[in-house]
Amino acid sequence: MVNMLMLSNVWRHFKKICVHKYYVGKYCFKAGLYWQGIVHDLSKFSPTEFVESVKYYQGDVSPIVACKKENGYSMAWFHHRGRNLHHYECWVDNFDNYFSGDKLTLIKMPYKYAVEMLCDYLGAGQAYMGKGFSYEKEWQWWLKKRENCAMHPYTKHFIDSALYYMRVDGDDRLLRDHEMLKVLHENNSDFLREAGE
């Protein structure tokens, strides 16, 4: 029985990765990030990430979350975040100083990785929500996530702005406006607070 479940999880997890990669690729291509759209998350097929993810496969959330709940950490996550610069966790430094009372150093993500992270969030939403996906639901997910993530404030503002516009417009046409994406990335003002959001 366990072996049949594991075999089933192998196929279901493989499909979930492919659906996620499809949507991230679609979004990255719209944003002009062709290479990143192709190579996005290839490390998920590595034994370190794939085997653990099959073991903790849930279908509606990342297996990494389930693994962390059970073990307190995930070797797949260590492997993944160390090889994929579209994760904001790659852009945090000075962990040793944190324990002596200093703050972590949060580094503003370069444009191409910040946009890929946006596409990653959208692709994960599509993969996990399926037909229930909407930019409004993605916005609501982000509002919860943003409260506790160690992300540089300017990068956070970029994601705020991009998802806000997508929520208001109800579509992803912002991704095709490369100049606007660059403006949002470089604009460091917190327009959401000014707008009363």
What multimeric state do the chains show?
A: single chain
**Proportion in helices:** 55-70%
What's the β-strand tally? 2
Could you tell me the strand content as a percent range? under 5%
Main sheet attributes: strand count, strand direction, barrel closure:
2 strands, antiparallel
Tell the overall outline: globular
* Individual helix count: 11
Q: Which parts are unreliable, with pLDDT below 50 for 5 consecutive residues or more?
A: 190-197
Q: What Rg is obtained from the alpha carbons, in whole angstroms?
A: 17 Å
Strand order of the largest sheet: 1-2
SSE string, helix = H, strand = E? HHHHHEHEHHHHH
Q: In angstroms, what separates the terminal alpha carbons?
A: 50 Å
Please provide a written account of the structure.
This protein is mostly helical and 197 residues long. The protein has a domain of 110 residues. The protein contains eleven helices and two strands; from the N terminus they run H-H-H-H-H-E-H-E-H-H-H-H-H. A two-stranded antiparallel ribbon has the order 1-2.
Structure in a nutshell:
By secondary structure, the chain is an all-alpha fold. The protein contains 11 helices and 2 strands. The chain has helices spanning 2-30, 34-39, 47-55, 63-71, 75-81, 95-98, 111-129, 135-146, 153-169, 178-186, 191-194; strands spanning 92-93, 105-106.
Which helices and strands occur, and which strands form pairs?
Blueprint: H1 2-30, H2 34-39, H3 47-55, H4 63-71, H5 75-81, E1 92-93, H6 95-98, E2 105-106, H7 111-129, H8 135-146, H9 153-169, H10 178-186, H11 191-194
Antiparallel strand pairs: 1-2
